[in-house]
Write a structure and sequence with these properties.
The complex is a heterodimer of chains A (about 325) and B (about 70). Chain A is α/β, with parallel strands linked by helices. In chain A, about 35% of the residues lie in helices and about 25% in strands. Chain A has a nine-stranded mixed beta sheet with strand order 3-8-9-2-10-1-11-12-13, with helices on both faces. Chain A has a two-stranded antiparallel ribbon with strand order 4-7. In chain A, strands 5-6 form a two-stranded antiparallel sheet. In chain A, α5 packs parallel to α6. The radius of gyration of chain B is 14 Å and the shape is flat. Chain B is built from four helices and two strands; from the N terminus they run βαβααα. Chain B has a two-stranded parallel sheet. Classes of the chains: A alpha/beta (about 325), B mainly alpha (about 70). At the A-B interface, α9 of A face α2 of B.
Amino acid sequence: MLEIAVASGKGGVGKSTLSSTLILYLKERGYDIIAVDADADAPNLHLIFEVERWDKEEPYSDSWVSEIDYFRCVNCGICHNVCTYGAVSLVEGRYYINPMICEGCLTCSLACPEKAIRRKRVNRGVIRLSYTKYGFPLWTSELSPGRPNSGRLVTEIKNRAKAMAKENTISVVDSAAGIGCQVISSLSGANVALLVAEPTPASLSDLKRIHIIAKQFSLPSALVINKYDMNSEFVEEIIKYAREENIDVIGMVPYDDHVPKAMAEMRPLIKQYNEAPASKALVEIARIVEERIIRGWSDWSRSHRPSKPARYVPIIIKPGEKA
Amino acid sequence: MVNRWGIGSSEKMYSIAEKIAKKHNAVIKAKIPYSRDLVEAYVRGIPIVEFYPDHEISKIFRSIAKEILDVV
């Protein structure tokens, strides 16, 4: 199995458009494809692929919150003092743990002299599977509002995808914006980081940050420059960075009104407007991914794998010392 | 605020947005039309109200800003 993680750091630069094109192109070329929507906070790949019902939908309840047993509670307030998340507050004269803030760390339970705090299982979110009308399975998940750690959900659906993958399966992971928890989960265990950037300083800055994570995982990286003609003077800057970092620039996509249009019409771009300039550029990029990265995997990965990253040395501050 | 007004099935989506707004006791204040001029200002790193002060979008932003100032 080959896992391609599409990521960008910055939002709105074209991750889902690139992912969906790549998925449909490779599917049409006869590959066994699994799609993973790795944005558990705001999943929407299913909207592009016109998913109407879920073939599988199950709660993912590996998460806990603390709860006060008011028959035992003497209202001493120790739980309030020890909670580092500020989840315990006085409500109408009684201490109360706000489940939206509680991370389920159980510190309050350990500190409680009356043993009046128990933990309760709660749903972190839902995981879903659909066999799309385009003939490939799509795994997606949705974090319950207020619950922490969307990365756990992303890891879970990536594992589910892995479990159903065959030797020659291609898994395309459409990661979330940012470089946080769930994006790290998207890149962890992947084989390729397919990065997307637009020619703006903000996008370049975020590209550098996402690439640090890709390097930490020793992932070879490829780069697509989207909307290149909206600020062509800046394209050179992006390419310069990519060259210094041994990132393979595999294509550029023009700014094209058909892209937001297809999105609003909730259809994959290459199905809705296959003659649009952006469609043609993206299909060409998908072709290069197939030829250069998938079929030429051993050569390509060898020549683009980053050198081992510097070991991460945590700074340890002992009690009483100053940072 | 409804952004990128005019692409896709805006009218249909707008009525959905209106319903949601009503449910949460919110008002839809403005529709920002989809415009490449906004993209142009964005890539230059200049707010559209400075880049194209007379633009339809700039006018919308100014009137919203004025309303906020009136409240505070």
